[in-house]
Amino acid sequence: MSTARQAAALAVLLWLGAAPLAGAAPPPGAPAAARVEAREAWIRLPPPAAGVAAGYVALHNHGPADRLLGARATGFAQVQVHAMRMDGEVMRMQALADGLALPAGRRIALQPGGYHLMLMHPKRPLQVGQRVSVHLQLAHGGEQRVDFVVRDGQGMPAHAHGGRP
Predict the structure, then answer these.
(1) What is the Cα 77 distance to its own chain's centre?
(2) Alpha-carbon separation of residue 82 from 10, 61, 76, 95 (angstroms)
(3) In degrees rounded to 5, what are phi and psi of residue 3?
(4) What's the rounded Cα separation, in Å, for the pair 56 and 139?
(5) Contact 83, 114 (CB under 8 A)
(6) Contact of 134 with 71, CB cutoff 8 Å
(7) Which of 2, 18, 46, 97 is most enclosed, with most CB atoms within 10 A?
(8) pTM reported for the whole predicted model
(9) H/E segment holding residue 16
(10) What DSSP designation does 163 have?
(11) 115 and 83 in contact (C-beta within 8 Å)?
């Protein structure tokens, strides 16, 4: 093979090696492109002067297994991932120090009475309709911003559960 042909073949091989492959994983440390889809994100309006609020969201993991390690939120000192568990006849809340598993291809609901985000020490009172920027921290998917809306009662707009619009 001539030197010119060898150089051309080497250039093509280098170019092919540098081109990203379809479906290839991102380089280590790079955030994945929204493999975890967040829907129905809301925060229950807490009573006045409450030092905490609960956040709920449906997470659908479209990628490989991941883990929700924690979160941070605008206007709150701290956010923790919590679970409600029965202890005999008493329902208890517990922080999940290792986070929450998000199995591949599964939907995990953070909802009242179950898994939820505990938003602690708000800098100012929340109001119905307010949007709160929450940054979910995923073990493999990096950080993902989700806008939560503050709602009353069951998380539905007033007109959806019998109240006035």
Answers:
(1) 18
(2) 55, 19, 16, 4
(3) -60, -40
(4) 19
(5) yes
(6) yes
(7) 46
(8) 0.72
(9) helix 3-18
(10) S
(11) yes
Residue-level pLDDT, tens digit, the chain, 165 residues: 555 444 333 333 333 333 333 333 443 443 445 589 999 999 999 998 899 999 999 999 999 999 999 999 999 999 999 999 888 899 899 999 999 999 999 999 999 999 999 999 999 999 999 999 999 999 998 999 999 999 997 544 443 433 333
Using H for helix, E for strand and C for coil, what is the string for 37-85?
EEEEEEEECCCCCCCEEEEEEEEEECCCCEEEEEEEECCEEEEEEEEEE
Bridge partners of 83?
A: 94
**Long-range contacts from 101-105, C-beta under 8 angstroms, 24+ separation:** 101/65, 101/67, 102/36, 102/59, 102/61, 102/65, 102/66, 102/67, 102/68, 102/138, 103/61, 103/65, 104/61, 104/63, 104/64, 104/65, 105/61, 105/62
The token pair at 71 is 């979160």
State the number of CA atoms in the 13 A half-sphere of 129 facing the CB.
2
